[in-house]
Amino acid sequence: MRRSYLEFRDFLENPIPGITISPNADLSTRTSMRTRCRTAILAEVNDPRGLRELLHRAHERAWPLLMLGGGANTLFATSFFNGITVSLGKPFESIMPLDMGVLRIGAATPLPSLIGSAKRFGLMGLEFLYKVPGQVGGALAGNAGAGGWGICDLLERAVCMTRNGRIIQLKRGDFRYSYRFSELKELIILEADLRLRPLDPAESERLKADYSAKKKNQPYHLSSSGCIFKNVLDTSTNTRVSTGKLIDEAGLKGYCIRDAMVSEGHGNFIVNVGQATGEDFLALINFVKDALGEQYGVDVELEVNVVGGPMANVKVYS
Ligand code: EPU
Fold first, then answer.
1. By C-alpha distance, which of 228, 220, 244, 227 is closest to 311?
2. What is the reported pTM?
């Protein structure tokens, strides 16, 4: 059921300093899958003190609250999210060099800008994130990466807010993370210090070329969330098997449900070739999951964060 007009008014008539509220806001341009979705309230945070008050109010009124990063790995299952979608604004886009090869980076800083910024400060080490979309906060929450590396490997310290508005600082050893998983996703990440290494320009270019070559079949020109499933763990060798390769070998490339299509380029991408909805993506995800289960006896795990619906794997707070 949609929230009543009176509930919106409460938010609009009692503004929170540092928070911009937009009722019934369009989210379709805020996720890289570009599915049609609106949210009851979009709250853009420009001041962490305002965020604390927002969390408090949402909790008092039992409003579901979702933290959205760059939207590169988020799929809304339905066309309306009946809650508050929180997004960090411009003040959280920042990069500042500290001593000893550490960069202090705001959580809303776009990942694609990082390699160039590090280079300007005479540093490297982020090349494995070449062409990975999204923002630093979301990347840390999902331990984004490639080639056996994840962004959490570089973390020195993260400044986060708990769901009850407390600011905490965590070092790498204070939380668990692994392949495409990080306990930081339980928190609202505000800022991170990443440890890099001195720039070797030729080595940096070589690494970028390597990662670029690995991505040559990935359809980044189309709307998708990148890889939709995690790679499958082969317990006999403790290595990961490419789910994209399995999908390819199962003959599923090009398979469509309405405008959601298994990419012709890389099997682990589902692309929006028109007006695909969250339901279309989920129907295709289920189809592929079942097909891989039947053919290979594997139960592939989602890499994408699903908001709402029966496959939800994102915690919505209230
Ligand atoms: N392959 C196929 N067909 C396909 C896809 C892959 O034959 O449709 C083959 C490739 O030719 C290659 C092997 O499978 O021989 C591995 O493929 P790839 O190098 O693309 O690696 P991947 O394991 O499928 C992972 C990450 C990607 C990352 C690449 C490159 C996951 C789920 N995916 O894919 O990350 O870009 O390695 O480093 O871990 C993402 O997470 O969003 C993502 C795109």
1. 228
2. 0.95
